[in-house]
Design goal:
138 residues; 4 helices; 6 strands
């Protein structure tokens, strides 16, 4: 991908600009529960402050765990600012984390998607939602 601009913001949250669209990037790689909770709380505060719709990319790896405390904080943040999150994609999830994501999606009525690569995730975030025009049958 060419012409990507990255800006670092608070608590390790980045803003990536690609094709004139902003994506908030939260990297949870190699983080312990307390750091992950701090990041997602800062993310929620940032969205509240900006009060505009966002695209979100979360990065995980084998050393970042979806602990009960982190998942609870995720639910709190989603309750506060979920209406401002247009799309959310995650990368770096193993099978267990993908199953947890499915449960979280059901519990919070969200549609966060998991991808194997950064490129796939960014492509998903940047694609426009197709407009379905109903067919008129005479």
């Amino acid at each position: 991908m060419s012409s990507i601009e990255n800006k670092f913001m608070v608590d390790g949250i980045q803003k990536m600009v690609y094709q004139n669209k902003e994506i908030l990037v939260i990297d949870y790689s190699n983080r312990k529960e307390a750091e992950m909770i701090k990041k997602i709380a800062a993310f929620g505060d940032y969205i509240k402050k900006e009060n505009k719709h966002v695209l979100v990319l979360g990065i995980f790896n084998e050393k970042s765990y979806a602990t009960p405390g982190f998942l609870a904080q995720n639910r709190r943040v989603n309750a506060e600012v979920g209406h401002l999150i247009d799309k959310k994609a995650l990368i770096g999830l193993n099978l267990a984390k993908k199953m947890i994501l499915k449960g979280q999606n059901l519990a919070m009525n969200t549609n966060t998607k998991s991808f194997d690569t950064m490129e796939e995730a960014v492509q998903y975030l940047l694609e426009d939602q197709p407009v379905t025009v109903p067919k008129i049958i005479l």
